[in-house]
Design a protein that fits this description.
alpha+beta, seven-stranded antiparallel β-sheet, 31 strands, 31% strand, hydrolase, PDZ, PDZ domain-containing protein, serine protease
């Protein structure tokens, strides 16, 4: 079983004796393996593997199937001048590469009022000027403290995390100490490399404390599944060794220019020396996004589910020329394109570039590039012009592009929200919660909803009863857990904040919670109010709700007609799609 691994380094390795291959264990979470579908129903396994210092070591495995493999090149890049190669031995720009020491404090999604035990990890970073450093998001995610150390220095300097881009696995750091920057020079970025170009990866991987340099070539450039962000962006595949601790370190061309950031490897019984680098096109998008907005806003999406149109009869039926266009199967309700594009439209161009019937667009040297890559190059709030054929008529429409709105988010930088009502613990469903609890604990119905349901409006969440803190007031309900709550006193629940608002404003005698399949939980309002402080005290819980739920509730659902939409039959990511003829853009 193949695995893509996002890496940062440990003080030691742990390898299960039964493993057929060397497997690195995840430092970001306690050891818990998610329940996977049978091998015949999946092609690849995306495994975020990293290392931590401490007594507990484990791994977290995410099932993702890399289906769409279109060759990608940067079509805006001019031919670059080939310079003489640089001798890396003794090169001063290696001093711009630093070691990152992070202490992580991850949220506890099972017990959302507290944090998990702290653990430490190491990774790499490099200087980019203006007092800033670049590294991977997974190196500093949920950080309590970040320190960096220069090559040949014995002093660690405190760093501040300025921005984290989950989808692109990038993070921007700053160091205030002037002593740290004395005598240093930032790295310069190069252009997207060509196939078979030499590449040198620099960082601080396991096996030693000093800087490490490994060399290889560019094997492939295409859309790649980013293990940490569960996203599909441009990636560079190389055969240079990338090990735990290399994450966040730069990859150089022969001219000493940084052409990307090392971030993950592909491990499998039948795979060797497959590493991945985040290209400068993605890095530039992350940095410019931060400069424009003062924060990271994400990579945009059209929010449309597309079908390839390779069959001539399909094209003829829809009055589309051969080898042209992709069919719109569904538009996400939260996408600005929801009122612009329609089911049955055929997208034939994007910002003036023709789209082929396989969802690709032309590129230099007779290559083709995935259509969704063009979308990802835009910024949140940009306008795109889309050429479509609707009922045989050609037309052009314009729509704003924004990041996708997930009903069950993959990552959340904030602490999990929760509210406790008479011992009933409610929290939003997230991939982090599923990862922590295990897929088998949710049941097939709820798990299917998490994997195949689209958000109908901004802010929609699946709110679940995660557990019941036993007390006389909730007797008979103690064994409930991991079930979706649908309504409160007859009102459909939109999100966790909406539930808190309904509870606070309730004037009825009873709290009536309605769950899936009309299962009811009824509590006496006055008795629940009397018992709640005691339940919190007995369980050592400082507050009956998360801090965000003390803020006034704002309804973001907007168009109420969307509330009746049936959105429970569509794979939410390309990784869940079993047919090569379908893709999200």
């Amino acid at each position: 079983m193949a695995a893509v691994a996002a890496l940062f380094s440990p003080s030691s390795l742990s390898v299960p004796s039964s493993s057929r291959k060397t497997t690195f264990f995840c430092s970001a979470k306690p050891w818990r393996t998610r329940n996977h579908v049978p091998d015949k129903h999946r092609r690849n396994e995306v495994e975020r593997v990293s290392q931590r210092k401490g007594k507990e070591e484990g791994r977290v495995v995410k099932s993702m199937k890399n289906k769409e493999k279109s060759l990608l090149y940067d079509y805006n890049l001019e031919e670059q001048q080939v310079l003489d190669p640089i001798d890396f031995q003794g090169s001063s720009f290696l001093n711009a590469v630093v070691k990152v020491y992070t202490t992580h404090t991850s949220p506890d999604y099972s017990l959302p009022w507290q944090k998990q035990r702290q653990y430490a990890s190491t990774g790499s970073a490099f200087m980019i000027g203006d007092g800033k450093l670049l590294t991977n998001a997974h190196c500093v995610e949920h950080s309590a403290q970040v320190k960096v150390k220069k090559r040949g220095d014995d002093t660690k300097y405190v760093a501040k995390v300025l921005a984290i881009g989950i989808e692109c696995d990038m993070a921007l750091l700053s160091v205030e100490s002037e002593k740290f920057w004395k005598g240093t020079e930032p790295l310069s970025f190069g252009r997207l490399p060509s196939l078979q170009d030499s590449v040198t990866v620099v960082g601080y991987p396991l096996g030693g404390d000093t800087i490490s340099v490994t060399k290889g070539i560019v094997s492939r450039i295409e859309v790649t599944s980013y293990a940490h962000g569960a996203s599909d962006l441009l990636g560079i595949q190389i055969d240079a060794a990338i090990n735990s601790g290399n994450s966040g370190g730069p990859a150089f061309n022969d001219q000493g220019e940084c052409i990307g950031v090392a971030f993950q490897v592909y491990r499998g019984d039948d795979a060797e020396n497959i590493g991945y680098v985040i290209p400068t096109t993605v890095v530039s998008h992350f940095l410019q996004d931060y400069e424009k907005n003062g924060k990271y806003t994400g990579f945009p999406s059209l929010g449309v589910l597309l079908q390839k149109m390779e069959n001539p009869a399909l094209s003829e039926c829809l009055k589309v020329s051969d080898h042209e266009g992709v069919l719109v199967r569904k538009v996400e309700p939260t996408s600005p394109a929801y009122d612009i594009l329609k089911k049955g439209d055929v997208i034939v161009s994007f910002d003036g570039t023709s789209v082929g019937n396989e969802g690709t667009v032309p590129f230099r040297s007779s290559e083709r590039i995935a259509f969704r890559y063009l979308v990802s190059q835009k910024y949140c709030g940009d306008v795109a012009e889309i050429g479509i054929i609707r009922a045989g008529s050609h037309m052009k429409v314009r729509t704003v592009v924004i990041p996708r709105e997930y009903l069950v988010p993959y990552h959340n930088d904030d602490d999990p929200s929760y509210i406790i009502v008479a011992g009933l613990v409610f929290t939003p469903l997230s991939e982090a919660f599923i990862e922590e609890e295990g897929e088998e604990s949710l049941g097939l119905k709820l798990l299917a909803k998490a994997r195949y349901s689209l958000a109908r409006f901004k802010g929609e969440q699946i709110v679940i009863l995660s557990q019941v803190l036993a007390h006389d007031v909730n007797i008979g309900y103690e064994d409930m857990g991991n079930q979706q709550v649908m309504k409160f006193n007859g009102i459909a629940i939109k999100n966790i904040h909406h539930l808190a608002h309904l509870v606070d404003s309730c004037k009825d005698k009873y709290f009536i919670f309605e769950f899936e399949d009309n299962y009811l939980v009824v509590l006496d309002k006055e008795k629940a109010a009397e018992a709640s402080p005691r339940i919190l005290k007995d369980n050592g819980i400082p507050s009956g709700r998360s801090t965000d739920l003390f803020e006034p509730y704002a309804d973001l659902s907007g168009d109420n007609r969307l509330l009746d939409l049936d959105i429970g039959d569509t794979p939410i990511t390309n990784s869940e799609i079993d047919s090569e003829g379908l893709l999200w853009a």
